[in-house]
Amino acid sequence: MLKVSPGSMKLLTQATYVLLAVSAVFVLWVQRNPGMFPSGWESAAPWLFLSFAILLSAQSIVKAVLKQSSFARSLMHIGVAAAFLMVLFLGMPLKGRADTNAVVATTHEIEQLLSNKDERIRVMAAELIRYRPEGLHLAPALIKALGDSSLRVRETAHASLVHLNGGVDLGTSETQDGIRAWKQRFQPK
């Protein structure tokens, strides 16, 4: 029969919990900050958690077999890890499942849409930017849109800048101080 000292099992358990927690935090951080990491990391992050969840599950079953823990506790560990894993995978983008014929606008094309003669298109482009992974790179175009002739475009560009700035408002498009603050924050050095 397998002999494992209680001290080494305790150390292994603690290390597994720490690795599981660190991988969960990493996965959530990657999913909450798209575009911050290479896309391979974003796709691999939930799999990292899965590997530690499998290690925890195997360890729980081994402890139950060795009569160091109950099977109910092992099943609880497995259930909690599986539930959290489902939440992580639900948060993943559905790459490969979307329409493969879909056209993705480039940064340059979105900048061009901000100068379209139709106000509605300019408003939609200003709103779209806040949801794009490369939104921060398009902030200078939004700053330029703060001077648009349309109030709706200016307000939407302002709302997108606030969103890209983590919810912090540096000033409206109606004042030169506000526009200057946005330029200082987002204009390339």
Give a written overview of the molecule.
It is a single chain. With 189 residues, the protein is an all-alpha fold. It folds into 2 domains: 6-90; 107-186, Leucine-rich Repeat Variant. It has helices spanning 6-32, 39-65, 71-90, 107-113, 119-129, 139-145, 151-164, 176-186. The protein is elongated. It starts with 5 loop residues before the first helix and ends with a helix. The relative contact order is 0.08.
Alpha-carbon Rg, integer: 24 Å
Specify the structural class. mainly alpha
Helices, by number, come to 8
Q: SSE string, helix = H, strand = E? A: HHHHHHHH
Q: Into which percentage range does the β-strand content fall?
A: under 5%
Shape: elongated
Question: Unreliable segments (pLDDT under 50, ≥5 consecutive)?
Answer: 94-102
Largest sheet: none
Average pLDDT figure = 80
The figure for the number of domains is: 2
Terminal residue distance: 66 Å
Q: Care to count the β-strands? A: 0
Helix content: 55-70%
Characteristic key phrases:
single chain, 189 residues
Short précis:
By secondary structure, the protein is an all-alpha fold. Helix content is 66%, strand content 0%.
